[in-house]
Design brief:
It is a single chain. Strand 1 and strand 2 form a beta hairpin. The protein has a single domain, classed as Glycosyltransferase (Alpha/alpha barrel). It is built from 16 helices and 2 strands. Strands 1-2 form a two-stranded antiparallel ribbon. Helix 8 packs antiparallel against helix 9. The longest helix has about 35 residues. The chain is mainly alpha-helical.
Length: about 525
């Protein structure tokens, strides 16, 4: 009875039971209570215990789910086409580019050192070939069949009135026919492009970048070199979004730029040239693929360029500069990036375009030429080609006459044997200055007609001839398909990656893959 009184009068001393090693008294107490309880109470107690356990499990799962939601990193998306740009899961890791792929560089019949109108080089008088020799291998479709179809409305001496624009060269079969035959490209030029892309793929660093110094360059301009290389692949229709032989190469390059980009949108450039080049590359990549991750990267880059742009629109090596120091070469790449953003339907404020127009006006000189620096009194061929193309890209009242005047000025210079690029005494021909070649080729291609016929025969075959066909250099490095930077202006600064990528872009003018070619957009 004493035991009963202790149980009824006070709480059971659980510690005492545990210490004494005799759980039997507690078990006896509980057993006695259960025996005294009616059956319905036992049932109630059992179900209540089960419900309590289930509710505890459910509450714990809810807490874990709530915690996971707060731990998920959130990307702040720039306000660019948010209704169209949707999040997608990260793509699976792509297989690395295989080092054993290669194509032979065909024996290339070269036109005379100084092509003439009577002897313009191979294939210029042949019937047009298929849309493109390599189109079946490319993951995207070209904007227009390769042709010399002008996409800017300027008057041509051998045509009545104004050209109709981007689709005016399409015939009933859907192929572009032109005086150049297949747009002026040949199977030899196609082989040259493929060999160059293969060299770039082999030259890519393991981290996805392209090194400037490693390939005879004069500085740490890896942002610019990576942008140039990506543009060369994109210009031939190779992207990261669909299976192709260079898919991994492009994906790794874009990933490296993404890691290099700062929160304000700036890349780790050493000179502002690189900001425009990389900005153009990511804008073109987004325009071709509509990949939302690349779209956000591109928009941030464009926003940084716009935020840096001064009221007079001019840039130089360090970015924004006073009005008289605006540099046509550096500013040209920023205008190219902005135009690429517009074509890719990213957000580019009208104010940025108007500022660019101010700069083009400040650099305009006699005969439609442009000055290198705003404070320069005279124009020069290479920077004039940049100004001409920028006017085509931006469009606007009064530009038609300026564009044609510049085209006449450049054509007269080349036909008269005058200096081409004009930047360096040892590189004064059309194919000696990659900037001059690229901008002038793109601009003359847009004009078309006799301008393009003449320009095509002057740059294509001489440029193809300069491509390296030997397998290795004196250091045992693979160089086949590249262009030796010693043969080109700015090669000492940009190196082999620069000379190769820029020359490829010039030879890719026929393809029309890059969205920036949508001149009338």
């Amino acid at each position: 009875m004493a035991n009963d009184e202790r149980i009824e009068g006070q709480e059971p001393d659980l510690e005492q039971y545990i210490e004494e090693g005799g759980p039997s008294k507690l078990q006896e107490f509980l057993s006695d209570q259960v025996k005294r309880a009616p059956w319905w109470a036992i049932s109630f107690l059992f179900h209540a215990t089960v419900l309590l356990i289930l509710s505890t499990m459910s509450w714990g799962a809810g807490r874990r789910e709530e915690a996971s939601l707060f731990n998920v990193p959130v990307n702040i998306v720039d306000p660019v086409k948010q209704e169209e740009i949707k999040e997608e899961p990260d793509p699976p890791e792509q297989e690395q580019v295989k080092e054993d792929f290669d194509v032979p560089i065909e024996d290339i019949p070269i036109s005379p050192e100084t092509p003439s109108k009577n002897d313009p080089g191979p294939d210029l008088d042949m019937e047009p070939v298929a849309d493109s020799v390599k189109d079946v291998e490319r993951p995207v479709q070209s904007i227009d069949p390769p042709s010399n179809t002008p996409v800017f409305a300027v008057e041509s001496p051998n045509m009545k009135g104004l050209n109709r624009g981007i689709y005016s060269g399409r015939n009933s079969s859907g192929r572009g026919r032109s005086v150049g035959g297949g747009g002026g490209t040949t199977k030899h030029a196609e082989s040259t492009v493929m060999a160059g892309l293969i060299w770039l793929a082999k030259a890519q660093e393991p981290d996805g970048s392209w090194s400037c110094k490693k390939w005879e360059g004069g500085g740490d301009y890896d942002v610019g070199m990576t942008g140039f290389a990506l543009l060369a692949f994109l210009g031939a229709g190779y992207t990261h979004a669909k299976p192709n032989r260079f898919q991994t190469t492009v994906a790794k390059g874009l990933a490296w730029l993404h890691q290099d980009q700062k929160a304000n949108g700036s890349f780790g450039w050493k000179t502002f040239y690189e900001m425009g080049i990389a900005g153009m590359a990511v804008s073109e990549a987004y325009g071709l693929t509509q990949d939302p991750k690349v779209g956000r990267m591109a928009q941030k880059a464009l926003d940084f360029i716009v935020a840096t742009q001064p009221d007079h629109g001019g840039f130089r090596y360090g970015g924004s500069v006073p009005k008289d120091e605006g540099d046509m070469s550096v500013t040209g790449w920023q205008i190219m990036a902005l135009k690429s953003g517009i074509c890719a339907e990213l957000k580019v404020p009208e104010e940025a375009i108007n500022r660019s127009r101010v700069f083009l006006k400040n650099t305009l000189r006699d005969y439609g030429s442009s000055s290198y620096i705003v404070s320069s009194k005279s124009g020069a061929p290479a920077v004039s080609a940049i100004g001409m193309l920028c006017r085509q890209f931006l469009g606007g009242d009064g530009y038609d006459a300026e564009i044609r005047a510049c085209a006449d000025y450049l054509l007269k210079k080349e036909q008269g044997g005058g200096q081409g690029g004009g930047f360096a005494p040892n590189h004064n021909t059309l194919v000696g200055d990659p900037y001059y070649t690229y901008y002038s080729v793109l601009a003359m291609f847009q004009i078309g007609g006799e301008y393009w016929l003449e320009w095509n025969k002057r740059f294509r075959d001489p440029l193809v001839k300069l491509q390296i066909q030997q397998q290795f250099d004196g250091q045992g490095r693979f160089v086949r398909g590249s262009w030796d930077p010693k043969n080109f202006c700015w090669g000492q600064q940009g190196g082999r990656v620069f000379s190769t990528a820029m020359n490829l872009l010039s030879l890719e003018v026929y393809y029309r893959f890059l969205p920036v070619y949508r001149m009338n957009k």
